[in-house]
Amino acid sequence: MAPCAQTGSGRLSRGLLLLWALLGTGLCHTGTEVEGFGQDARTSPPVPMFNWTAQLVEETYTNITQKCWEFFVDLMKNVTVSELCEWKVISRPYSFLQTCLETWADHLHYGYPNALAERYIFQSHHRYFHNCTLEHQVYFDPPEDVLLAMIIAPICLIPFLVTLVIWRSKDGKAQP
């Protein structure tokens, strides 16, 4: 494994840190020997992505989504109860969860949206955002009879107005 590279601030890059958080593996193994993928009795060659079975892909995606959820829960621990409904505060953890679920599904060719991702999204809403209400009035569609009247009235009125214009223009006298 390559040595750990540090950025100017002394931290690992965000991409490597994210990968580490999602997969739950260590990035730097100091003091350990790294063995290759030799064909001996203890190891087997890595399995290419395109040979994965559907069951293995589903199992992998299930494990990764669990890591996404755990990281989301960890991020939400920093949000106070009074801030739970403020989009400026929760957008980063919520967007991370959604992006994590979508990116890994895409990477594994699992398909998105899927039932597992929807379960975690619904779980986040039920656990953290169930008491959030909208500050402005929510508008709903009008009742069906009112909607029908609003659609039919102009349809019936247009032919009447066209007929009136044609009838008035047949008079033949020039209008001043």
Description of the molecule:
The chain has about 180 residues and is mainly α. The protein contains five helices and no strands. Helix 2 (about 55-75) packs antiparallel against helix 3 (about 85-105). The chain is elongated, with a radius of gyration of 30 Å. The relative contact order is 0.07.
Strand content: under 5%
Helical residues, percent: 40-55%
Largest sheet: none
Backbone shape? elongated
Class computed from helices, strands and strand pairing: mainly alpha
Cα radius of gyration in angstroms: 30 Å
Mean pLDDT: 75
Secondary structure tally, helices: 5
CA(first)-CA(last) distance: 93 Å
Secondary structure: number of strands = 0
Order of helices and strands: HHHHH
Low-confidence stretches: 1-22, 25-48
What would a concise description of this structure say?
The protein is an all-alpha fold and 176 residues long. The chain is 53% helix and 0% strand. Helix 2 packs antiparallel against helix 3 (87-107).
What key attributes describe this structure?
5 helices; 53% helix
Secondary structure layout:
Blueprint: H1 14-23, H2 54-76, H3 87-107, H4 115-128, H5 144-169
Helix pairs in contact: 2-3
